[in-house]
């Protein structure tokens, strides 16, 4: 194997082939010619990517690896680590975008020559975007604070290094300092040259910024416990909320935002959502993550523009600093127009003792358990007079007794303008309904606002409205098992922006509450405490319509009840497998990769298949994939396709109809596209749902079961006989859909009656 060749783990092989990890383990046992490990450990071996790809092709298990997948595997298997590889790629992509001619000249050279020439070229673009270098290290366009000393760096992935400079990485400091991107040396870059060539090829197709977004998104997805992410839909919503409300002065509304700060930048999702010509400021405690964020924001900015003298000049880059924001504020003199912040939650070691006399605590010293209220006051201290801030907050911050004095101060001074409850699933931690706090720094001489907007959008969780919803209203309550892929962002976005901009009382959604009503012993600002919940089923007036629809659905369901089953002896039929049919060309297999918002089409999710719902609705135009990553090229559904979930252990299969065709195939789904001249789709879907069939085709881990679709079995039958079975399976599917609809309507009617009887809008007699 060539030195520094890209390696891949068993999980990466499973992703390439669209199977589970158990299948890869079986291949290693069953096939003597399976590639041998070249690295890793005994429990987690790694393999040469080129050898694995060739073996998969020889076995007919891989047609062609998409370019973006090959680039990601090269990043993940980089000998210096994925974090270092991403820094190299980010520097190269800046060069590709800002100096394309120089890149083409470099790319024409052999690998060793290219590695020797790249540092000087990267130095040029890093200086233009992130400021001049000191000893080969680039900061930002802002002046370097005095008295900064560098120390050890941390590689993304949590590994600390000893003191000093980490080649190809970043520097840390005990005091706040610019996020520093070290210009890689020729020796550092030599193993990365094939990766950089492939990344440039990917950028030629989707753009340098999107190429980096995709790779960074994959890195974040591969390490979900290491990062706290802000979904892009939520980031854009927070940016929109930072705009002045409709009743603000017209000149103020039309004035462009000049400066935006994120004091807990993380991966830079909030600042990346900001549009227009703005000065971006960010601070992040993790130096390696801060460097990646600086590259991300630089690549998201506009490319070089032609100046009056005919030269191309790059726009100033973001100002990204490293350090603990509360203990070592990097921007003590900044008065930003807007602050966006997703602070860390429930931190006990935030500096309570050493910051007891900090001048930022205008509204009171936060308790040790109230780190979030420390962030609130830090944000207000970094706003200009009249500036707006939007923070993502845990719900407990609105009601904990230990914070009531600070909340009261925020209300009396008019600094807190709105508290908006989001549905569970809007952002991590996904199990609780987080809040958005909108703040405005009080202006001297201006009378404080006398009211607070409270809004609750928690009833808007779940997929887009379906046939069982009352016309004109989204379905009430949470979707069972609600989560990120079952989140109706368009409805939530519309409700939140309407509530903020209109500041009007809307039954069950928003209420403008006088401050005097909130200044009691608890100062509880949780919206649910001050808003009556809307009755299920649209209130007493809507229960009649729900009852009529339920009655009609039950009548139709009765007509779809299958006839009595005719007992027969167990049939012994010759069997084949899905894998054998795929090798014979009778059907094709595809794995889903799309998530809602990652593609221009609606996405059929695992939840949609299990519940019979329509594909998940699109987010608002202009939003991108979660984590900021561009999606893999999606698999689009066609009529007659059969879709099965690969996780969970249940039996489910869905035949794609004309209404679902055109949607993208979501994650954790397997698509079987049969040749209609050889396999009837309803026959295929019906036999795939057999309990015994699923059991023999599933592998089990400690917490979940995974289906290997290739092992599912089908009886060998002529097409005419298949169609006879298929017609019966189609009738069963229609009966199942009718039962689902009746169950949804029945649940709404029952809950609506409970609500009406208990609140007095329905009488018992």
Explain the layout of strands and helices.
Elements: E1 7-9, H1 10-17, H2 21-30, E2 39-40, E3 45-48, H3 49-58, H4 67-76, H5 82-98, H6 100-107, H7 111-130, E4 133-134, E5 137-138, E6 150-151, E7 154-155, E8 159-160, E9 172-173, E10 177-178, E11 181-182, H8 186-189, H9 193-206, H10 208-222, H11 232-241, H12 250-254, E12 259-262, H13 269-272, E13 279-284, H14 287-300, E14 305-306, E15 312-313, E16 319-322, E17 336-341, H15 371-381, E18 383-393, H16 404-412, E19 416-421, E20 435-440, E21 451-456, H17 489-502, E22 510-514, H18 515-518, H19 527-530, H20 540-559, E23 575-577, H21 578-583, E24 587-591, E25 603-604, H22 606-611, E26 642-645, E27 654-655, E28 664-665, E29 669-674, H23 681-688, H24 691-697, E30 698-700, E31 705-707, E32 713-715, H25 719-759
Parallel strand pairs: 12-13, 12-17, 13-16, 17-18, 19-21, 25-28
Antiparallel strand pairs: 1-3, 2-3, 4-5, 5-11, 6-9, 7-8, 10-16, 14-15, 18-20, 19-20, 21-22, 23-32, 24-29, 26-27, 26-29, 30-31
């Amino acid at each position: 194997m060539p030195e520094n060749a890209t390696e891949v783990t068993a999980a990466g092989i499973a992703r390439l082939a669209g199977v589970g990890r158990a299948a890869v383990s079986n291949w290693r046992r069953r096939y003597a010619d399976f590639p041998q490990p070249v690295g890793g450990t005994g429990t987690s071996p790694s393999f040469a990517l080129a050898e694995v790809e060739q073996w998969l092709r020889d076995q007919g298990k891989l047609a062609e690896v998409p370019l973006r997948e090959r680039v990601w595997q090269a990043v993940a298997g980089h000998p210096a680590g994925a974090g270092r590889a991403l820094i190299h790629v980010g520097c190269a992509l800046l060069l590709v975008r800002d100096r394309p001619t120089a890149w083409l000249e470099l790319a024409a050279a052999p690998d060793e020559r290219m590695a020797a020439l790249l540092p000087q070229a990267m130095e040029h673009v890093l200086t233009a975007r992130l400021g001049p270098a000191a000893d080969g290290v680039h900061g930002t366009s802002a002046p370097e604070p005095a008295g900064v000393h560098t120390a050890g760096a941390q590689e993304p992935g949590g590994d600390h290094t000893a003191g000093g400079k980490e080649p190809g990485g970043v520097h840390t400091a005990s005091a706040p300092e610019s996020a520093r991107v070290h210009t890689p040396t020729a020796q550092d870059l030599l193993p990365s040259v094939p990766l950089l060539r492939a990344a440039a090829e990917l950028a030629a197709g989707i753009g340098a910024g999107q190429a980096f977004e995709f790779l960074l998104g994959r890195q974040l997805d591969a390490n979900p416990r290491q990062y706290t992410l802000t979904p892009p839909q939520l980031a854009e919503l927070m940016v929109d909320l930072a705009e002045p409300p409709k009743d603000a002065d017209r000149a103020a509304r039309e004035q462009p935002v000049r400066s935006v700060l994120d004091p807990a930048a993380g991966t830079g999702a909030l600042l990346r959502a900001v549009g227009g010509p703005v000065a971006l400021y960010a601070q992040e405690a993790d130096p390696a993550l801060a460097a990646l964020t600086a590259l991300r924001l630089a690549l998201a900015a506009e490319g070089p523009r032609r100046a009056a003298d005919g030269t191309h000049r790059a726009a100033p880059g973001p100002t990204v600093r490293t350090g603990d924001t509360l203990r070592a504020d990097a921007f003590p003199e900044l008065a930003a127009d807007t602050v966006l912040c997703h602070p860390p939650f429930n931190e006990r070691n935030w500096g309570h003792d050493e910051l007891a006399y900090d001048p930022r605590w205008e509204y009171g010293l936060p308790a040790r358990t109230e780190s979030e209220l420390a962030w609130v006051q830090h944000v207000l201290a970094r706003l200009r007079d009249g500036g707006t801030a939007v923070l993502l907050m845990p719900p407990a911050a609105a009601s904990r007794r230990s914070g009531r004095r600070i909340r009261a101060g925020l209300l009396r001074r008019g600094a807190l303008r709105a508290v908006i409850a989001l549905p569970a699933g809007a952002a991590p931690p996904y199990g609780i309904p987080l809040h958005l706090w909108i703040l405005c720094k009080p202006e001297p001489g201006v009378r404080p606002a006398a009211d607070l907007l409270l809004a609750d959008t928690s009833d808007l969780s779940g997929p887009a409205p379906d046939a069982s919803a009352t016309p004109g209203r989204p379905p009430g309550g949470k979707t069972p098992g609600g989560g990120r892929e079952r989140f109706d962002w368009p409805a939530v976005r519309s409700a939140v922006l309407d509530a903020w901009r209109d500041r009007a009382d809307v039954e069950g959604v928003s209420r403008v509450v006088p401050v005097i009503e909130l200044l009691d012993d608890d100062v509880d600002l949780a919206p649910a405490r001050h808003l009556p919940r809307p009755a299920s089923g649209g209130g007493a007036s809507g229960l009649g319509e729900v009852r009529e629809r339920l009655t009609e659905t039950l009548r139709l369901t009765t007509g779809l009840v299958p006839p009595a089953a005719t007992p027969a002896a167990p049939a012994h039929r010759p069997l084949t497998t899905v894998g054998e049919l795929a090798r014979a060309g009778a059907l094709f297999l595809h794995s889903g990769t799309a998530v809602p918002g990652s593609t221009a089409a609606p996405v059929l999710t695992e939840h949609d298949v299990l519940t019979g719902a329509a594909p998940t609705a699109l987010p608002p135009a202009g939003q991108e994939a979660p984590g900021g990553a561009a999606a893999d090229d999606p698999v689009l559904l066609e009529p007659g396709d059969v879709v099965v979930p690969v996780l969970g252990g249940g039996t489910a299969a869905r035949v794609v109809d004309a209404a679902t065709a055109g949607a993208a195939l979501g994650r954790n789904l397997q698509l079987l596209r049969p040749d209609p001249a050889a396999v009837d789709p309803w026959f295929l879907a019906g036999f795939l749902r057999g309990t015994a069939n699923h059991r023999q085709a599933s592998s089990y881990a400690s917490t979940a079961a995974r289906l290997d679709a290739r092992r599912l079995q089908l009886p060998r039958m002529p097409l005419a006989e298949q169609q006879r079975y298929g017609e019966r399976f189609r009738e069963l599917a229609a009966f199942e859909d009718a039962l689902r609809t009746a169950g949804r309507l029945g649940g709404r009617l029952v809950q609506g009656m409970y609500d009406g009887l208990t609140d007095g809008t329905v009488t018992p007699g």
